[in-house]
Amino acid sequence: MKRIFITLLTIGCISFTNQVQAQQNENFDLQSFIENLFNLQDESLNYEDLYERLLLLYENPVNLNSASVDQLKGLYILSDPQIDSLKNYITENGKLLTIYELQLVPGFDYNTIEKLVPFVSVDSKEFIQDDRPLLQRILTERNNYFIYRFEQTLEEKEGYTEPESPDDTRYAGGPAKHYLRYRVAKSGDFSFGFTTELDAGEKFTWDPATKRFGMDFWSIHGMVENYKGFRKIILGDYQLQFGQGLIFGAGFGVGKGSETINALERVNTGAKPYASVIEGGFLRGTAVTYDVSEKMEVTAFASHLKQDASIRQDEESFEDYFSSIQTTGFHRTPTEIANKRQIAETVLGANIHFKMSEIAQFGMVLNSNSYSLPIQRSNQAYNQFEFSGKSNHNASIYTSFSLRQFRFFGESGISKSGGTGGVFGFTSTLSPRVDFAMMFRSYARDFHAMRGASFAEGSRNINESGIYWGFKYTLNSKFFLTAYYDTFQFPWLRFRVNTPSEGNDYLLRLNYFPQRSVKIYVQYRNKSREENTEDPEDGSTVVRAGTKQQVLANFEYRITPQLNLKSRVQFSDFRITGEFNDGYAFIQDAVYSTGKFVFSGRIAIFDTEGANNRQYAYERDVLYAFSIPAYSGEGIRNYLLIQYKLNRQIDIWARVARTSFYDRDEVGTGLETIDGDKRTDVKFQIRYKIR
């Protein structure tokens, strides 16, 4: 009775806040959420997989009363002590009666709850088993929609002009890009859908005899969950994430960022449907997860996927081979079209996962990769230990467990070559105000994990070792500091680095939220990494440390529930062997909501020197599009995005973005060249909810 009284009193006290927050949730900006959580501003990272996963959670919130530790950690919002506190609160007081009862959970402040609310619920209906036929559940599911998107650059690119001679290459198709998506999904029950895309320059071709069905790329999946002992059954396209991503990393890890603690440990999500249009990094076939017991589950998977590659012939043996898989997904020119689906990759494997308790689990992964043609790298010294041949296999073991205030996790594996790789770390709450994390990684120069994506400085987990330290200090609900320091070594040569090399990377971010309508942060990052450069004295190639510094200041102010302003300044400089260049960007954003409309706009002024000082900044975009363009050179960038909710079933987006350059009279290179100093991109999207 006392708990109910406190809950009712809490609800009454925050009724006004709830009204404001309801307005915010209705127009919840998932892109800004990801930006604030993982902002690094150093390169055009693709967070599409993470974005899609969080959007599915937004549409199908996790029930806090029944969520597992892995589900809660997968939100990248809660720390281990907060998860433990929530579990203890529910154990001692019973199921949560309302989402706002979180304010009574020890360790939960307003900022945490504000981030959490869009992705969670306390819906009691989840505990009522739905015994209706699958087709009926699909037809009555509210998360059931179509999306169509059109994109085009208004200025004419060289690839679409008339050729001046018969030898000139041009794109096969027109300048428009088309995207179509259908999905019906309910978390914990089923997911069915397809995604198809025709990139600008690709030709619309309908020829079933050659397996061409209009659009250039198709991805289809079907999944049922919790069916007769099977946790999941997936047919079609899917991704895998086991352990810390050493052998299979599905893109759900965010690496180094301003969230220095909670996002470090990878979540064992297992098999997940694939619904993106990135034409690489996924599997095509079937994956099945079966619950052997309450503590043991087994996942078996098989995939056969044709991928793009340039086929060459060995001059001595006359055997065909390829040097790498091409993942751009473009099929516009004769060469790109000729490389389409030239090799086949077959992947077979299994995962055994033991869940001893909510805080302790371990497992193992076995898999084999085989290709229809052998991989043969170019004869360069840095390729000496790279994978070559037609087949590879891996095995790994992983674990995660909690011991008092420490959370430990790790994975260790081996490849066919005998090369080993491993990543081990822990997080800890040293005091109510101080969180700490540490991670060790070591990937041998001959460790080959074709689909691995564990924590690393490089783009792949090979030829690298390092130690990462993460730190978070919370003074109060208004002020907290996050920082990390990462030191790394590359024991063998790399592309454009002619000797073994090393480097370090550290970040410091001060966050200050003086009131709910104001958010301020200042961020500094320093990264030093050795690379090839020219000796200023004799012109020879030498390896020296290049150092990049970045400073970012961000001020966000919600003037009214309808109007939000954000101002940002970011600056960087790069130094190596006496060479110095820098770059900056001034950015002003505004978001205004009124009735059925949401207007978003930006004006950015930038001036940068060299590729190392490109300025990256998130931009609001249409649903399911994630935009982080590079501001390079000297100019102005602006965009306007309009969202209109026609009715309960139809949403419409329209976006126009223009970059005007002051330092050039041509934009782009090759067939992407625009004769002029401007580039204008338009985008239109419509979503139709069937229910």
Give start-end ranges of low-pLDDT stretches.
13-26, 41-46
Please tell me what the overall shape is.
globular
Q: What fraction of residues sit in β-strands?
A: over 45%
Distance between the termini: 39 Å
Structural class: mainly beta
Keywords for this entry:
691 residues; mainly beta; two-stranded parallel sheet
Account of the protein in words:
It is built from 9 helices and 35 strands. The protein has 691 residues and is mainly β. The protein has a 24-stranded antiparallel β-barrel. A two-stranded parallel ribbon has the order 1-2. The protein is globular, with a radius of gyration of 26 Å.
Quick structural gist:
It contains 9 helices and 35 strands. By secondary structure, the protein is mainly beta. Among the domains are: 126 residues, no CATH class; 176 residues, Porin (Beta Barrel).
Helix-strand layout with pairing:
Elements: H1 2-13, H2 15-26, H3 30-38, H4 48-59, E1 62-63, H5 69-73, H6 80-93, H7 110-116, E2 120-121, H8 134-140, E3 144-153, E4 176-186, E5 190-198, E6 205-207, E7 212-214, E8 217-227, E9 230-241, E10 270-273, E11 283-293, E12 296-307, E13 312-313, E14 320-321, H9 334-338, E15 343-357, E16 360-375, E17 389-403, E18 406-415, E19 420-431, E20 434-443, E21 464-474, E22 479-490, E23 501-515, E24 518-534, E25 541-558, E26 563-576, E27 579-594, E28 597-608, E29 615-616, E30 630-631, E31 634-645, E32 650-661, E33 666-667, E34 674-675, E35 678-689
Parallel strand pairs: 1-2
Antiparallel strand pairs: 3-4, 3-35, 4-5, 5-8, 6-7, 8-9, 9-10, 9-11, 11-12, 12-15, 13-14, 15-16, 16-17, 17-18, 18-19, 19-20, 20-21, 21-22, 22-23, 23-24, 24-25, 25-26, 26-27, 27-28, 28-31, 29-30, 31-32, 32-35, 33-34
